[in-house]
Amino acid sequence: MNTKKIELSKITNIIDPIVGMREQWDLVTAEHDGVVNTLTAAWGAFGNLCEKKIVTVYIRPQRYTKKFMDASGRFTMTFFDGHMQELGYLGSNSGADVPNKIEKSGLHVAHVDGQPTFEEGKYVLVCKTIYKDALKPENFVDASLAAENFPDKDYSVMYIAEIEAAYEIEA
Ligand SMILES: Cc1cc2nc3c(=O)[nH]c(=O)nc-3n(C[C@H](O)[C@H](O)[C@H](O)COP(=O)(O)O)c2cc1C
């Protein structure tokens, strides 16, 4: 797999923060002890915090990928051109139940900066968690959003991560 580095200041020109995450989704992927797990994500944001270029993702506590993110302290976000069927599969099957779900999806793991991504991806961000905390129902100013989005009270953990590097995946 060949990659081309992207200047961090250009990320939002390349990955639309609303359309890219919300409508085309991405894979949040982490590795621990040589094992890789991934999930499909649609919630997230780009920004600036503590003078670092950051990305924020929201991961529910029951996600198997969360264990890998916590153990590793790093994760990647891989963006695709298409591949919605594969992302749909990875977003509806847990690695806790289907340990070979990546293989079954038909996507192929590759590495960049020692972190897992996918040969079929178009762009990848290498991210280092700098802050995490669970959303708290009492902190929703509009309580109906908490009720609508978390009927099972599985409040997402917000991961704020420094974007360490960004790459275009060429082949
Ligand atoms: C389009 C789409 C978007 C999703 N967005 C998120 C998200 O932002 N956060 C999250 O925790 N789960 C999200 N999910 C659900 C996970 O991808 C799904 O539960 C996955 O099977 C978890 O896999 P894991 O248990 O192996 O980590 C989304 C699923 C789909 C299909």
What does the model show?
With 171 residues, the protein is an alpha+beta fold. The chain has one domain (3-169): Pnp Oxidase, Chain A, CATH 2.30.110.10. The protein has helices spanning 11-14, 19-23, 64-72, 84-90, 101-105, 143-149, and strands at 3-6, 26-32, 35-41, 44-49, 52-59, 74-79, 109-112, 115-118, 123-134, 157-169. Strand 4 and strand 5 (52-59) form a beta hairpin. The mean pLDDT is 96. The protein binds flavin mononucleotide. Flavin mononucleotide binds next to strand 3, strand 5 and helix 3. Flavin mononucleotide is lined by residues 25, 37, 39-43, 58-60, 63-65, 88, 91-96, 156.
Itemize the secondary structure elements and their pairings.
Layout: E1 3-6, H1 11-14, H2 19-23, E2 26-32, E3 35-41, E4 44-49, E5 52-59, H3 64-72, E6 74-79, H4 84-90, H5 101-105, E7 109-112, E8 115-118, E9 123-134, H6 143-149, E10 157-169
Antiparallel strand pairs: 1-10, 2-3, 2-6, 4-5, 5-10, 6-9, 7-8, 9-10
The structure holds flavin mononucleotide.
Summary?
It is built from six helices and ten strands.
Helix proportion range: 10-25%
Cα end-to-end separation: 5 Å
Radius of gyration: 15 Å
Low-confidence stretches: none
**Which structural class matches the secondary elements?**
alpha+beta
What is the CATH architecture assignment? Roll
The proportion of residues in beta strands is: 35-45%
Number of helices: 6
Ligand catalogue? flavin mononucleotide
* Outline: globular
CATH overall fold name = Pnp Oxidase, Chain A
